[in-house]
């Protein structure tokens, strides 16, 4: 049973991580479009974001199950707790990105630059989460 939950957890990681890179590519493309008709970058980003949010939810649910099974909440290493802090940082970044995205994809250059920075922070947080999980559970 643990292997099945771990596999779902990893699937959630892939679902949550891949859209972060895709949204950055869309944000860069949206910033490069001049005047005139604009592709629906916001709609594409929203669809990618929905996959990412579903993955994030899967990670949270399976992570809680695994932490309860292993006793990590009561006897977790410092790396486990650092990982949880960065999970919260990532969650805050996802929420912030969702609030900025409509303006950024409608052509607001300043908001687009902030969204790009937030995207890099989110990817950095994801990398730290994976590293901390590796150190905590290996």
Helix content: over 70%
What is the residue-mean pLDDT, rounded to a whole number?
A: 86
Which strand-content bin applies to the residues?
Answer: under 5%
Order of helices and strands: HHHHH
Rg for CA atoms = 17 Å
The biggest sheet amounts to: none
Shape estimate? elongated
Quickly give the structural class: mainly alpha
Number of strands: 0
N-to-C terminal Cα separation, in Å? 19 Å
Low-pLDDT windows of residues: none
Number of helices: 5
Quick overview:
The chain has five helices and no strands. Helix content is 88%, strand content 0%.
Description:
- There is one protein chain.
- With 138 residues, the chain is an all-alpha fold.
- The protein has helices at 2-32, 41-70, 72-75, 78-105, 109-137.
- The chain is elongated and about 55 Å long.
Observed structural traits:
138 residues, mainly alpha, 5 helices
Indicate the topology.
Layout: H1 2-32, H2 41-70, H3 72-75, H4 78-105, H5 109-137
Helix pairs in contact: 1-2, 1-5, 2-4, 4-5
